[in-house]
Structures are given as structure tokens and as C-alpha cells.
Amino acid sequence: MNTNGVLNKARNEDNDEFYTLFTTVEQELVYYNNIFAYKTVYCNCDNPITSNFVKWLYSNFDTLHLKRIMATAYNSHGQGQYFNTDSCDDKYLDAISAKTSLLNGNGDFRSDECIELLKQADIVVTNPPFSLFRDFITLMMKYDKKFIVIGHQNAITYNEIFPYIQSNKIQLGYSIHAGDREFRVSDDYPINTKKSRVDSDGNKYISVTGIRWFTNIRSQSYNENLILFQKYTSEQYPKYDNCDAINVDKTCNIPADYDGVIGVPVTFLDKYNPDQFQIVGKINNPTCNGKKIYKRLLIKKTPVLLDN
After folding, report:
1. Cβ contacts of residue 18 below 8 Å, gap of 6+?
2. pTM here?
3. pLDDT, position 15
4. Using DSSP, how many helices (H) and how many strands (E) does the chain show?
5. DSSP state, 74?
6. Are 128 and 149 in contact (CB under 8 A)?
7. DSSP secondary structure letter of residue 108
8. CA distance 267 to 251
């Protein structure tokens, strides 16, 4: 089963609780050290006992000068969990357990109870369920919340999310640009892919391609301009059958001398700099010479503004 098959299976079965590893969390969040100072951080899709988001934030509470950490966990069969602290303790698990209580409701991040907690937060850091990523981002934007969350690159072209990508209100994070990322899955998750394993303690893991961080608080500037070497020819860069744009299969092959609309893979965002290109649209089902091609972003060179 390929990665898209894994994600589709998760969506169809509502079995998309993929637990982010500590190293994956740490490799991204270290880029935002100066952002967290004196802030309330909310992990609204996280079991406080097992979440590596909560663990990393709690372990670095004093270093980050955090004001407060909150976390809520969903429970489909009863009351969700709520964790809240404004200090840290060396005995991590004991402290987390002591400061964890039950919610009135099930802990769904969309519930009124969790939205009231969301309103108290400055930054949201979590791994939303893949099947609810649209709902999650819509909620963050509705309440004007800063966030650093992990998701799949397919979300780039979702109708609910693409306008924010296009207008540079959401960017990709720093630490993931290619390759697989491993997640721990629930004990009852069926392990039937080549990219899966069970450790010596019986914990199950699955590797997923196309994972990216999504944020609206990048603390550094955009990527440097791409160095382009290719020259345009109509043979090498045919137009789509259903869109007035040329097809480019790899970001590195964008022609340097073409000023029209160009279709590029969604992974172009890893190298995207709005000073060099602007995103003018997307096409979900392009065809080229009758051949179906995976969804594309549509880009065009950013006009150079001349000083008077």
C-alpha cells in the first residue's frame, strides 16, 4: 500500500491518529525558540501523557520562557483529557499526570469547550488528524491563531487551504523537504505495508511520504531565489490540454527564459520565494498530450518593480 493509500484508508476508517515522534517535533520547533517567549501554547489534538509536542514543550518550558501549556485529547467513548500548567517539574510523567483532568465533553478540537481554550492560546502546536486537516486550518484562521502543525502536502491544494497558501498567509515549515517521516500508530492499527515496523516493546510505526509542516509564523525570511539553467522549448515543455500553462515535472527544471504560466509539482513550495515567483492558481486534474498528471501549482515570475 502506498502513502496515498495509507491516508485514504485512514480517512475512510477514521483511523488517522498518527503520533509524531519526538525527533520530528524537535527538529522543527527549534526554529521558533524566540517566538514562544511569554506565550500560552495549546496542543489541542494531544494526549498529554503520550504527546511528544507536550513533552518537548514541557521539557523546554524554562528555556523557551513559556507562560503556559495547555493540551486536550479526544476520547470517542467518553470525556476527553485536559492538561494545563504554568510551570515545569523535573519529574515529567508525574507532573503531567498530576496536572491532567477530564473535560466535560469528548475533547474534539471543534467543540465549544475546546474553542474556549483555543481563545486563550497564543500559539497552537499539534498534529491534527489527517482527515480533519481542512476543519482544523479553517478553525485556526477563523480565530486568528498562530500555529505550527504537521500535515500532508496534499493539503496544499485543498480548496479551504490553497487561498492562504497563494496569498502567503500559510507557509511550509523549515525542517521537512523530502523523504518519509515515521509515526507511531495505535495498537490496533493494521501493519500491512513495507514501510512499517514493530519495536521491541510492541509499539507500531508507519512511514509516510509527503509530510510537511504548515505555519503562519515563520521567523526567518523566505528561501533564496532558485538558480535556473534550463531554456524553454515547446518540445521539452508542452502545454496542458486543459490549461494555458506549460508543464514542468521538477522544480529544478523551471525554464529561466519563460514568462508565462508554469505548472509545477506541489513540492515547489519547498523552494518557493514570492520575490521570484507568484502563485497564480492550481489545477487538480491536468492532462498533457492526453496523459494524466498529478495536481500542479500554477506559478509565474514575479514582476520586477523599477524605481522611478
Report:
1. 10, 127, 130, 183, 184, 185, 206, 208
2. 0.91
3. 55
4. 8, 18
5. -
6. yes
7. -
8. 8
